[in-house]
Amino acid sequence: MPEKTIFTNRRSEIAGVPVARLAEEFGTPLYVYDAAKIKERIADLAMFDTVRYAQKACSSLAILKLVRKAGAAVDAVSAMEIRRAVAAGWPVTAEKPEDPDPIVYTADIFDRDALDLIAGEYPVHVNCGSMDMIWQLGQRAPGREITLRLNPGFGHGHSQKTNTGGDQSKHGIWHEDLMRAIELASHFDLKVKGLHMHIGSGTDLEHLATVCEAMDRAGLAAGPRISVISCGGGLPVPYDNSGEYVDLAAYYKIWREKLDLLAKVYRHPIRLEIEPGRYIVAESGYLVSEIRAVKNQGGNLFYLADAGFNNLARPVMYGSHHPISVAGPSADAPEADVIVGGPLCESGDIFTQKEGGYVEKRRLPKAEVGDYLVFEVAGAYGFMMGSNYNSKPLAAEVLIEDGVPRLIRKRQSFSDLISCEVE
Are 290 and 372 in contact (CB under 8 A)? Predict the structure, then answer.
């Protein structure tokens, strides 16, 4: 398993570069990514036949190119994510039939743009999550190979909102409809070559292992047409000092043993794919923000920063915990219980809250206006969920590689902000 990070509430640098230097050179709010951590996480998964990056976690082009060069394939969930993958250098289709598909489109629907693109200019492999997808692709592009995303009837995740299995989830083809889906695909000469399951984001080994059991049953039912199995993503990363990684070697062993038995039954090898997003990029990312006000409200001390939920939405959406550190105070600065908020015209613009909006306090060094707050483990679903609420510009992004910080996304200007508007 990876070596676990011990989080503290003080930080002076990111990937060897001083926080103050990053803020002064690139401004705040600022997303900063450590390239070495991304490469390390992809290397952790080398035992799997294919590592497929779920780019929705962080799809900036520089990050995608880094992931591709590290040897991963990619997942896309929209027409524009397909275009991003192509722009980052992935080929549209595999060179050889036995090679993994470089790009897979996984969704529960085709919007019209995605269907037009896949049926035409970019015929990427499709992982169908609904009967209607099979029908629509079959009408437009019969004869293709596809995989089926199955809902195994259960799910698990760090929040109900990230649970992607069970009868309250919109995702996947219901497990009892597998044979009906295969029959529908056959009607259009669509060849079902693989199965995929993903039960949720931030789950644990016990629940991930149950997916293997469900997939084993589905693989036997589907028959010898199956040559690739995707165990999905959902691998957790620690967001505090009590969090744990999944034992990857144990997880791989569970899957490999099941798939080897399936391969003996069908007399051909079965490739094992894993499809992480969070695991690859979460720990690489930091959101750097400047404290712009320190307020005492009754018995509460507030640090108000220039980053809000327009920059990092996970706390307000899920009550997600992100480690917060302060850059600026001396090492012997006293500590206080602090509520951390942003600049937005919303009472919910609080970073230190639990699911349901319950505000909590963090033990942080006493700080002043001009000191920096660093929100850690922010590389997954951080920038990607950003918005222009309150007409706030999207943050800049910086990638640090070999100790050198490089701007990979310019801060949004006012002209960028209104460029698509028509008076």
Answer: yes
